Amino acid sequence: MRIVIVDMHRINFLVRTYSMLKVDDKIVKAKHRFLIDYALKEGIPICNYVTGRGYEIRGAKYLSKVFGKKTIAKYEAKYVLKKNFPSTNINIIGKTEEIKSDDIVIGYFFDELTRNIIAELPGHKVLMSNHFVAINESMDLTKWGVEAFVSEINLDNNDFVNRYIKHDNIKMITCPYTFAERFCNKNLSRKNKLFAVGTLSTCKGNKGYKLYREMFKTEWIQIMRKEIFENADKYPEEMDSYISYIFEDKIAINPTDSAIVKKYKSWKNKHSIWTQRKYESFDMVEKFNEYLYFACPEELVGMPGIGFVEGMACGTAYIGIDAQYYRDLGLIPGVHYISYDGTMNGLIDTIHYCMNHTEEVKAIAKTGESFVREHFNQEEVAKNFINDLKSLALISKNKEEQI
User: Which helix (H) or strand (E) holds 312?
Assistant: First the structure.
């Protein structure tokens, strides 16, 4: 089996991209990097298929007129891959005919360039979904010849996906969130209150998200994060909130600003490095270990936050909603985590219960920690993911033989 990834060098879920390398951005974003590392360790060849339709090199638009888009894109890919995988050879290819019919071809659903070209490619096509909110029209995965759709949860019962994304007879692969090894239980004494964490995201200022707005009638992605972000100060005994607004370091553009001021602020925001100072101001592992229980409120579209796995791996009891996607992952409310009704009043009531039942909370935290460490460690998740890819190729081969 060979894995071919479309424009791998441009996907910050897999690598530190060219722009990140140039500004020395050390924030860990490559959350799927472990899948590549595992495949390489298992001796599975990895190829980067360079489309030449997008690059981050400054001045590339003009350079491409002289040297060609593919040449500039391949140079960027070579630079990025060498920096990310200095001791590993990942083959760079740029022609469709270099992709074999039995290759596993992986693209990212959120990347419009990938969605536009993947239908043209041979091989067993797999789309990594990750999130769905930033799409503006219903999509039919079958018309692209996609054989598998990957997400951190089982999407079979996701209302948003079933409404807007056609996926008939397409294999749904679950690739759960994982925790890095630094997330561990340090067996410290813990505060008997809630640690609230996560990034508060919004559609504001983005022309996309049409379908999300249509279905949920809101500009906010995580409603309970917004509630905690705005109201945590009212509950100093119950919680400490470290939830940060995704654009907290951007300059606000006000309706009363003059046209010149609006243009300047827009330019400044566009050319400033995106940071979240509050989110980056503390050590996440240390914070999880300071508290007996925590919340990392879910997305309204029906997705958990990655923090739920990381916090549980630190031995902190997780408070989340009673959602089917947790049950599909094997998590049982009252056994592996503590459930509540998804409202602020319900959260406060649950915190009060936890404050008065600490031994029960500790037992749930311990069970949850064991479960996460067994099922959501990177080795286990990567192994299962690669096996799913192998079975995909095998199923297709059997179908071809039957024909």
Answer: helix 307-313
pLDDT tens digit string along 319-359? 999 999 999 999 999 999 999 999 999 999 999 999 999 99
Q: Are 338 and 361 in contact (CB under 8 A)?
A: yes
Q: How far is it, in rounded angstroms, from Cα 75 to Cα 361?
A: 53
* pLDDT tens-place string over residues 99-135: 999 999 999 987 777 877 888 899 999 999 876 666 7
Say if CB 2 and CB 100 are below 8 A apart.
yes
Taken in order 140, 142, 146, 150, is the CA torsion positive or negative?
Answer: positive
3-state SS, 377-390, equals EHHHHHHHHHHHHH
Percent helix, strand, coil in the chain, to 5, is 45, 15, 40
CATH annotation of 3-176+378-402: 3.40.50
Strand ranges (E), 197-261: 199-200, 239-241, 244-245
Calculate the alpha carbon distances from 164 to 106, 132, 356 in Å. 22, 10, 44
Q: Which amino acid is present at 97?
A: E
Query: What is the dotted CATH code of the domain comprising 191-242+282-375?
Result: 3.40.50.2000
Domain map (residue ranges) of the chain: 3-176+378-402, 191-242+282-375
DSSP symbols for 334-355: TTTBEEE-SSHHHHHHHHHHHH
Q: Which residue has the tokens 């990655």?
A: 306
State the Cα–Cα distance between residues 230 and 84, nearest whole angstrom: 39
pLDDT tens per residue, range 272-304: 555 566 667 789 999 999 999 999 999 999 999
